[in-house]
Design a protein that fits this description.
globular; five-stranded parallel β-sheet; alpha/beta; 19% strand; 5 helices; Rossmann fold; single chain; 5 strands
Length: 153
């Protein structure tokens, strides 16, 4: 069994990791940890939903992308080591792509049997204007999708 687990390093990501760990031990399953980084824009040097915000006084630089990638890789490795310590075979994937497209592409590329991701619990207006990663993945996935709800607010 192959389980693709999308993590965004938000507060709600911990519950996704905990549930993925439970499922991987029960099945058993190999876990593919995926973090999709939306490509940086030369117009606005901000990484969405991240604690890393490049200095607005400097022009767009490739260094910002590399720094964010290194930080994301470190975080993925920490989670991977944690799961491997529990006996779960784990691989990490870092991609620079739209979140929905990255999840769908990696699930197909790695022949995932299931996809697991979190929901942030945003309201209807947010979904109307911005959209929802979980909804997009559910619509496009060719395998079952498990959505872990965010903690109650």
């Amino acid at each position: 069994m192959k389980l693709l687990v999308a993590v965004d390093f938000s507060i709600s990501a911990e519950s996704v990791i905990v549930e993925a760990e439970k499922l991987a031990l029960t099945l058993p399953a190999k876990v593919f940890l995926l973090h999709a980084m939306a490509p940086l824009s030369p117009v606005m040097d901000v990484v969405a939903e991240s604690e890393i915000i490049p200095n607005p006084d400097t022009p767009f630089q490739r260094g910002a992308i590399q720094h964010c990638s290194e930080t994301a890789t470190e975080k993925l490795l920490e989670i991977s080591i944690r799961l491997q310590g529990r006996g779960i075979e784990t691989s990490i994937i870092l991609t620079h792509n739209n979140e929905v497209e990255a999840i769908i592409e990696e699930s197909r590329k790695n022949s995932a049997d299931m996809i697991m991701l979190g929901s942030h619990g945003h309201g209807a207006l947010y979904h109307l204007l911005i959209g929802s990663v979980s909804e997009g993945v559910i619509r496009k996935a060719s395998c079952p999708v498990i959505v872990i709800p965010s903690a109650p607010k």
